[in-house]
């Protein structure tokens, strides 16, 4: 019989709602609260050795203490699998579930399974971790789907515990992690592609082998009025940064943005800036940073009264293999900064 | 790069010169290169003053290499 541990929040452990969200990590022998439902679904396949619980707010306010306490308890119980959640559409809880799974999978090398609604923002974090030992199962939006969620978790626990190799997301029912594995196919790619095309033409269902990212639909901003009194800012993903790259940007997969002063500058002088970007030949940009930050052109327009003023900083995050969820977050942060400082229009230079 | 910008749904896209040097052309003498940069920036300012309902590409009015 497998030994498992179930990690849940204070609400599903039965301690209370928001009023108990500051509870520190605690543990109960056997199954407590929602873990009882999991034990019922598991039957004789596995035993819930312990239920670990924590307050949603406590976890986010004390991430290190919470993580260490949970790891200590899990390590002590030596389970074969750890179940965390389900979180449904609770964002805070969902995120803590993913973080807990990541810590256990990395530190203790125990496989973890969690579950939440596919639109829970924590799903993006789960994907970004690309962790082969974490599996996230889809649930309904609300806890009305609890028994189905626990049944799915129980089934997955049995699969994980049996030692069988877990196959693709589509076959096994978990949300994909964006991990690609080499496999031998039964037929050459050209045949598989033609079959897909024929199915598509016949309006028959087919499965793509490489799902493409679905992008957000963003409504266009209304047109700018009053350009001659407007503040215009430059945002660049070309990777132009001050010489020496003081903020240590990488040439790929950056995770933060910075803004640099151009208040007293009329143009971008070569030698004072360098281009940090692994996705294109940066020699042109290094010789002439204006290609990525066209300050000189904007200054002429400012002097001529065509635009009101240039915002005294330009914003940078070098592009190249940027994680969409990270870039979404960065975009929102830059937008908030722009709004705070009364910027009216933005020119973004991309490479 | 503008087909990629279109694919991800950017609302207003200005077609610039080339990926390694969007706002200029190193094959041109400096004054013409600066002019190219100016036209691209002016097109961008025109774009943000233009009502659009979906992804729209703006082409600066000049002959360009690449």
Amino-to-carboxy terminus distance of chain A: 56 Å
CATH architecture of the largest domain in chain A: 3-Layer(aba) Sandwich
Order of helices and strands of chain B: HEHE
Please state how the strands of the largest beta sheet of chain A are arranged side by side. Answer: 2-3-1-4-5-6
Supply the helix-strand structural class of chain B.
Answer: mainly alpha
Q: How are the elements arranged and paired?
A:
The complex is a heterodimer of chains A (351) and B (66).
Chain A: E1 2-9, E2 26-29, H1 34-42, E3 46-54, H2 56-61, H3 63-77, E4 81-84, H4 91-107, E5 112-116, H5 122-129, E6 134-138, H6 146-161, H7 169-172, H8 189-201, E7 231-236, E8 240-242, E9 258-261, E10 273-275, H9 283-287, H10 295-303, E11 309-316, H11 324-340, E12 345-349
Parallel strand pairs in A: 1-3, 1-4, 4-5, 5-6, 7-11, 7-12
Antiparallel strand pairs in A: 2-3, 8-10, 9-11
Helix pairs in contact in A: 1-6, 3-4, 4-5
Chain B: H1 2-8, E1 12-14, H2 30-48, E2 56-58
Parallel strand pairs in B: 1-2
Description of the structure:
The complex is a heterodimer of chains A (351) and B (66). Chain A is α/β, with parallel strands linked by helices and 351 residues long. Chain A folds into two domains: 171 residues, 3-Layer(aba) Sandwich (Rossmann fold), CATH 3.40.50.2300; 123 residues, no CATH class. Helices cover 34% and strands 18% of the residues of chain A. Chain A contains eleven helices and twelve strands. In chain A, strands 2-3-1-4-5-6 form a six-stranded mixed beta sheet, with helices on both faces. Chain A has a four-stranded mixed beta sheet with strand order 9-11-7-12, with helices on one face. A two-stranded antiparallel ribbon of chain A has the order 8-10. In chain A, helix 5 links the parallel strand 5 and strand 6. In chain A, helix 1 crosses helix 6. Chain A is globular, with a radius of gyration of 26 Å. In chain A, 36% of the residues are buried. The model of chain A has no long low-confidence stretch (mean pLDDT 93). Chain B is mainly α and 66 residues long. Chain B has one domain. Chain B has two helices and two strands. The mean pLDDT of chain B is 90.
């Amino acid at each position: 019989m497998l030994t498992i541990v179930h990690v849940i929040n204070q609400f599903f452990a039965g301690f209370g709602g928001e009023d108990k969200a500051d509870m520190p990590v605690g543990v109960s022998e056997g199954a407590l609260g929602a873990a009882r439902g999991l034990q019922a679904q598991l039957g004789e396949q596995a035993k819930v050795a312990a239920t670990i619980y924590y307050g949603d707010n406590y976890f986010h306010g004390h991430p290190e203490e919470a993580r260490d306490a949970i790891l200590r308890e899990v390590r002590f119980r030596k389970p074969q699998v750890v179940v965390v959640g389900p979180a449904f559409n609770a964002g805070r809880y969902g995120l803590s579930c993913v973080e807990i799974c990541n810590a256990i999978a990395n530190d203790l090398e125990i496989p973890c399974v969690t579950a939440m609604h596919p639109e829970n923002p924590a799903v993006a974090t789960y994907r970004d971790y690309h962790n082969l030992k974490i599996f996230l199962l889809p649930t309904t939006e609300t806890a009305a789907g609890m028994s189905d969620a626990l049944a799915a978790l129980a089934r997955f626990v049995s699969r994980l515990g049996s030692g069988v190799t877990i196959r693709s997301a589509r076959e096994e029912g978990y949300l994909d992690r964006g991990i690609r594995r080499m496999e031998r196919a039964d037929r050459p790619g050209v045949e598989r592609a033609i079959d897909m095309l024929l199915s598509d033409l016949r309006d028959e269902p087919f499965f793509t082998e490489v799902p493409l990212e679905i992008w957000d639909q963003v409504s266009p901003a209304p047109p700018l009025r009053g350009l001659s009194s407007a503040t215009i800012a430059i945002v660049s993903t070309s990777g132009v940064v001050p010489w020496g790259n003081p903020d240590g940007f990488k040439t790929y997969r950056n995770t933060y943005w910075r803004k640099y002063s151009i208040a007293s500058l009329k143009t971008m002088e070569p030698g004072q800036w360098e281009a940090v970007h692994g996705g294109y030949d940066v020699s042109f940009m290094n010789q002439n940073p204006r290609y990525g930050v066209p300050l000189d052109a904007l200054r002429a327009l400012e002097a001529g009264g065509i635009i009101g003023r240039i915002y005294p900083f330009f914003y940078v995050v070098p592009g190249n293999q940027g994680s969409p969820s990270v870039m979404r977050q960065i975009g929102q942060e830059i937008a908030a900064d722009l709004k705070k400082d009364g910027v009216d229009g933005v020119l973004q230079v991309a490479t | 790069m503008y087909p990629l910008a279109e694919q991800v749904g950017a609302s207003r896209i200005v077609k610039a010169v080339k990926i390694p040097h969007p706002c200029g052309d190193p094959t041109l003498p400096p004054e013409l290169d600066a002019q190219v940069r100016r036209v691209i920036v002016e097109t961008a300012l025109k774009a943000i003053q233009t009502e659009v309902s979906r992804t729209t590409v703006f082409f600066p009015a000049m002959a360009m290499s690449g």
